[in-house]
């Protein structure tokens, strides 16, 4: 990376890194790769610059979520001006590689979201014939592999894309494993290489969150049969919402022709069930659902027909039950003749009925509810709810063993069971420690596990006037805003005659020390007996 330039030497390796001795994000990602598994290890998603990037905020975006959801929120003139300044810093640094020029460029890259200006910057870089492409590549590579802050790395990734160096592919795929960078790597891969779709597919297999969603959207026009087959069997899966990817995968992956084959493989049928279920659940947002899939009725019939002769599990049961519930709706898309479901309804319900009437479902659900495999257990909880199976005793026993099932235990209308839940909370939650005094905290993170458990109890106490006062008392004095709000809401729902003698004085003291205006206002309205309509 050393070059002669008007009698001098341009050597980026002699530049003092503007980030000092802070660790390289790229090296952090490398250290957390799990061979053979997508994503990163337990600590891989938390980047070394997290505290700096969050600016002390307790609520933080999941990796890639801010760039993926928010998008561009800066005016065109602002974006163009930012790109112009950064381009000038790049130009100066590419002419003279010294500490001052490096620090100036890095400072500008740190100051703003890359997403807001990157398109303008790339257009300007491509149009500027005076820039030295090799030096631009070396600056980008230096930042991508050594920098300690995410925004400069995002810019570097974008620049690597326009440099079109095939040797950068592995570097880009490595950085793209962290979903904070996946969107930028996706664009870079599309701008570089001779077969960008295969590179995008390779990256899609390495991510499971927003990055997977963003890549699927960019593969919507693919004609590659391997990618289309993968979409139906694995590509639709993501850890955010399968509704985001279901429609693209159904259409692009050619779900209907795949189901028309006489003997579809098991992975295809699993995928078909999940895709159809996601489309049904996706009605009304946040994306298009079954109403946007014209082949939905025929695909559903073929899917259910194939299942008639297959041994199916709880996942299949949930998918079939979801389809049945959709078909039995008295209004909405199930009655829309344009979708083709009404004329097939009788046959489809016959197919779902044949599956749901099979013997042994209760035993399978019971076995799943007692499974130590978390995925199996959660699938069994969903199936139990759909089939009306009473699983409360299982939830309570698992809660007593230390599992975080407070929400499920408190979702009961049985007074005796509710009392058991309250007693267990009073006996096991460290209420004195929880009642440490109010702060602005929303209570995120493992250190607030007990406060989260209290949330699950407090939010249900409003249904049972007079029960759980010791829990409300602790909630009113909790450091987490959620605890305090839920405690007040419970009192607000109770008739005043159900308030313990100390409730009014405690609420007055809570008002005096409450740091949040909204919560204090709610406390005052509750104390004054104002109706909900005055909120």
Q: What brief labels describe this structure?
A:
30 helices, two-stranded antiparallel ribbon, 535 residues, disordered N terminus, mainly alpha, flat, 2 strands, 3 domains
Summarize the structure.
The protein has 30 helices and 2 strands.
Structural commentary:
This protein is mainly α. The chain has 3 domains: about 25-35 and about 45-55 and about 60-205, no CATH class; about 255-360, no CATH class; about 405-535, no CATH class. The chain has 30 helices and 2 strands. It has helices spanning about 25-30, 50-55, 65-70, 75-95, 100-110, 115-125, 135-145, 150-165, 170-175, 180-190, 195-205, 210-220, 225-235, 245-250, 255-260, 265-280, 295-305, 315-325, 340-355, 360-370, 375-385, 390-400, 405-410, 415-430, 430-435, 450-460, 470-475, 480-495, 505-515, 515-530, and strands spanning about 1-5, 10. The N and C termini lie far apart (about 65 Å).
């Amino acid at each position: 990376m050393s070059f002669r330039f008007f009698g001098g030497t341009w050597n980026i390796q002699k530049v003092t890194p503007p980030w000092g001795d802070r660790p390289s994000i790229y090296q952090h990602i490398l250290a957390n790769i799990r061979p053979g598994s997508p994503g990163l290890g337990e600590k891989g998603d938390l980047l070394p610059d997290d505290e700096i990037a969050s600016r002390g905020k307790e609520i933080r975006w999941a990796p890639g979520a801010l760039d993926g959801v928010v998008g561009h929120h800066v005016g065109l003139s602002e974006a163009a001006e930012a790109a112009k300044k950064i381009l000038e810093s790049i130009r100066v640094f590419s002419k003279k590689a010294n500490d001052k020029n490096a620090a100036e460029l890095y400072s500008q890259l740190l100051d703003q979201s890359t997403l807001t200006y990157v398109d303008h910057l790339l257009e300007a870089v491509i149009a500027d014939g005076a820039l030295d492409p090799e030096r631009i590549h070396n600056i980008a590579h230096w930042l991508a592999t050594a920098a300690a802050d995410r925004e400069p790395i995002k810019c570097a990734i974008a620049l690597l894309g326009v440099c079109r160096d095939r040797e950068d592919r592995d570097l880009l795929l490595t950085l793209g494993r962290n979903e904070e960078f996946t969107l930028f790597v996706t664009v870079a891969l599309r701008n570089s290489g001779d077969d960008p779709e295969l590179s995008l597919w390779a990256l899609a297999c390495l991510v499971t969150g927003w990055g997977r969603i963003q890549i699927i959207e960019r593969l919507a026009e693919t004609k590659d049969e391997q990618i289309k087959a993968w979409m139906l069997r694995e590509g639709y899966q993501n850890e955010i919402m399968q509704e985001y990817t279901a429609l693209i995968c159904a259409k692009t992956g050619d779900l209907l022709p795949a189901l028309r084959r006489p003997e579809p493989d098991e992975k295809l049928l699993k995928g078909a069930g999940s895709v159809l279920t996601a489309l049904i659940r996706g009605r009304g947002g946040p994306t298009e659902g079954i109403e946007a899939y014209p082949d939905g009725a025929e695909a559903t019939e073929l899917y259910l027909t194939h299942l008639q002769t297959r041994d199916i599990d709880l996942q299949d049961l949930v998918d079939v039950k979801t389809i049945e519930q959709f078909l039995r709706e008295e209004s909405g898309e199930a009655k829309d003749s344009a979708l083709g479901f009404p004329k097939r309804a009788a046959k489809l319900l016959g197919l779902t009925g044949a599956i749901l009437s099979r013997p042994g479902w209760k035993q399978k659900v019971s076995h799943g509810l007692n499974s130590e495999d978390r995925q199996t257990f959660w699938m069994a909880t969903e199936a139990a709810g759909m089939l009306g199976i009473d699983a409360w005793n299982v939830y309570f026993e698992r809660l007593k063993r230390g599992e975080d099932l407070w929400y499920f235990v408190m979702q009961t209308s049985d007074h005796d069971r509710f009392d058991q839940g309250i007693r267990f909370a009073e006996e096991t939650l460290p209420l004195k420690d929880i009642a440490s005094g109010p702060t602005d905290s929303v209570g995120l993170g493992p250190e607030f596990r007990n406060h989260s458990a209290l949330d699950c109890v407090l939010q249900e106490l409003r249904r049972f006037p007079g029960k759980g006062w010791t829990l409300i008392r602790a909630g009113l004095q909790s450091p987490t805003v959620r605890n305090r709000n839920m405690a007040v809401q419970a009192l607000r729902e109770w008739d005043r005659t159900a308030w313990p003698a100390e409730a009014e004085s405690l609420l007055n003291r809570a008002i005096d020390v409450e740091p949040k205006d909204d919560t204090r206002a709610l406390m005052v309205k509750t104390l004054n007996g104002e109706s909900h309509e005055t909120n």
